[in-house]
């Protein structure tokens, strides 16, 4: 007797998209647009297209991870949010198609940006999509080798911020680099929290994330180091633009509960709120930097 094909509800697809991770996609575009505006280069419709690219890639990589981890059996004893494949709510093929549909949306928006800016950006977009898929996909996913944080820093930090600024100004702006470091550090902090929570189950299935390699104690301090790196990037932006930007260091205040939880030894489900708190802190970083960067 054949097994019936699961029929996920809209709520299941929304849960699988992992909306709590979306600040990691919104904040870099906000920061990059702020730098572009400071440089008198704001192009609002390009900023919106950059946001579409970033959001589509984030949701796409979430579905791709769901699919790849699910078919490997990595999510069978998952502690965190529901996964579509691992929970049996959706067929693997359906989740895979959803991932590539999101990558397609990102690709179309990216093509428009490339056509109106510079065609070499197409190559950047292709690399972004390939990196999104092979995080947990393929025979040797780099996420299983401890390289996830490196790629998140590069693509959801440097590339996202600098790219957003460049498509609007078509010039190199040093503050965009510094903002990319800050956004990359906090995006990594979200991933570090996720991997810290999953150390026991990841170790069992041979998923050698950076957290598994570092161990629990050093991973907790690595999280703090990333928050400090984000604070240092605010100082660098202030030095390159206006010292008023130092007021954006206030982003640390909403981050304090997350830092206390991580250093307090929380494990498993107790770390789930840290994901949302870190994402919120990232939005605060971007919002405050933009506000004080553009203050008269």
Task: Describe this entry's structure for a reader.
The protein is mainly alpha-helical. It has one domain (13-293): Farnesyl Diphosphate Synthase. Helices cover 71% and strands 0% of the residues. It has helices spanning 10-17, 23-38, 44-72, 84-87, 92-116, 121-133, 148-169, 174-197, 199-204, 210-214, 216-240, 252-263, 272-293. Helix 3 packs antiparallel against helix 7, helix 5 (92-116) packs antiparallel against helix 6 and helix 8 runs antiparallel to helix 11 (216-240). It is globular, with a radius of gyration of 19 Å. The mean pLDDT is 92.
Pick out its properties.
single chain; 296 residues; mainly alpha; Farnesyl Diphosphate Synthase; 13 helices
Topology at a glance:
Blueprint: H1 10-17, H2 23-38, H3 44-72, H4 84-87, H5 92-116, H6 121-133, H7 148-169, H8 174-197, H9 199-204, H10 210-214, H11 216-240, H12 252-263, H13 272-293
Helix pairs in contact: 2-3, 2-7, 2-8, 2-13, 3-5, 3-6, 3-7, 5-6, 7-8, 8-11, 8-13, 11-12, 12-13
Spans of 5+ residues with little confidence (pLDDT < 50)? none
> What spatial form do the alpha-carbon principal axes imply?
globular
CATH class: Mainly Alpha
How much helical structure, as a percent, in the residues?
A: over 70%
Order of helices and strands: HHHHHHHHHHHHH
């Amino acid at each position: 007797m054949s097994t019936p094909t699961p029929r996920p509800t809209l709520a299941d697809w929304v849960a699988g998209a992992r909306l709590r991770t979306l600040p990691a996609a919104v904040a870099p575009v906000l920061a990059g647009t702020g730098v572009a505006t400071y440089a008198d280069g704001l192009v609002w419709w390009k900023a919106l297209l950059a946001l579409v690219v970033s959001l589509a890639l984030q949701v796409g990589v979430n579905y791709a991870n769901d699919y790849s981890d699910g078919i490997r059996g990595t999510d069978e004893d998952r502690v965190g949010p529901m996964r579509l494949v691992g929970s049996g709510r959706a067929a693997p093929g359906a989740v895979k198609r959803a991932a590539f549909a999101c990558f397609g949306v990102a690709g179309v928006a990216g093509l428009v940006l490339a056509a109106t800016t510079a065609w070499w950006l197409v190559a950047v977009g292709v690399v972004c999509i390939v990196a999104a898929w092979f995080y947990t996909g393929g025979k040797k996913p780099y996420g299983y080798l401890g390289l996830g944080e490196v790629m998140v820093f590069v693509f959801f930090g440097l590339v996202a911020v600098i790219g957003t600024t460049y498509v609007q100004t078509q010039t190199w702006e040093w503050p965009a680099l510094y903002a990319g470091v800050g956004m990359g550090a906090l995006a990594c902090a979200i991933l570090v929290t996720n991997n810290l929570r999953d150390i026991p189950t990841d170790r069992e299935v041979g998923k050698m994330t950076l957290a598994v390699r570092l161990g629990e104690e050093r991973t907790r301090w690595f999280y703090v180091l990333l928050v400090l790196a984000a604070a240092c990037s605010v100082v660098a932006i202030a030095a390159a633009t206006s010292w008023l930007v130092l007021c954006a260091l206030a982003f640390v205040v909403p981050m304090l509960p997350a830092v206390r939880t991580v250093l307090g030894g929380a494990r498993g489900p107790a770390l789930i709120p840290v994901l949302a708190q870190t994402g919120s802190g990232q939005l605060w970083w971007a919002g405050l930097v933009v506000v004080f960067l553009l203050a008269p």
